[in-house]
Amino acid sequence: MSRTMPEPGLSGRTLGDAVSWSTDPYADALRNGHGPLFLRRTDGWLLPLDVERWCAGADAADLSALRRCEGPVLDIGCGPGRLVAALAARGHPALGIDVSEAAVARTLRLGGSALHRSVFEPLPGEGRWGTVLLVDGNIGIGGDPRRLLLRTAALAAPGGLLIAETAPQDIDERVEVRLDDGRAAHAGAVPARPFPWARLGTPALLRQARPLGWHPAGQWEADGRRFVSLRRERTVLPTSQRADTVNSAPVISSQFPRNTSGDSPLAGS
Hints:
InterPro entries: SAM-dependent_MTases_sf (IPR029063). Helix 2 runs parallel beside helix 6 (101-109). This protein is globular. The longest helix has 11 residues, at 145-155. The chain is of the alpha/beta class and 269 residues long. The protein has a domain at 57-174 and 197-241: Vaccinia Virus protein VP39 (Rossmann fold). It has 8 helices and 11 strands. The relative contact order is 0.17. A hairpin with a 2-residue loop joins strand 10 (214-222) and strand 11. It is 25% helix and 25% strand.
């Protein structure tokens, strides 16, 4: 279901992104467990979205990232929840967030914890997450990697990890895209609204991250997918550098596990 009014903490730019991912093509693909689904640029170029893989269980490439996770994990743009569910099955505390109600619902059905929330809204445990995940191209969220990297630095604990999946090419791209399942060409179909997106290869991500307090901790490739881990500086960024972040008290949800320690951002109220 699309939103018509902004939620607290959502800018108009981010709201457009949230509304787009809440539209029928994405929700329908998650409910069906398959595509076709693409991101379409204004020039007609298509980026296929791997819905089938997202809706399956965590694969070997996913597990190569999950094995590196430290402490409680925040999965930004969790989609249908395979990573959160895989962590939960291993007894590793994790929370997914997504702007798609269908994605959150599927994550909860798999036994994971998830919130219907944008990364730029107030979130539980800000500044206390041991690992933040940006997998499946989610470094592109909002179309402004610098803003997203600053936000993840505010969410991660001092010394915490950011694990990101990068594009296979050496690319640094900012584009306007829309979700496309091929039905827009049919009579009566209304195209999804465009929203900003970004694609970064590993060199571009490292260039963006270093000045913002993220330092390289590792790089690897698994099943043709590329990953980078970055470690946050142990000193806290000055408030003036935390662009577009929300410095609010953590919001604790009854959806979260109750058997976590008091130091965890997932600790129950």
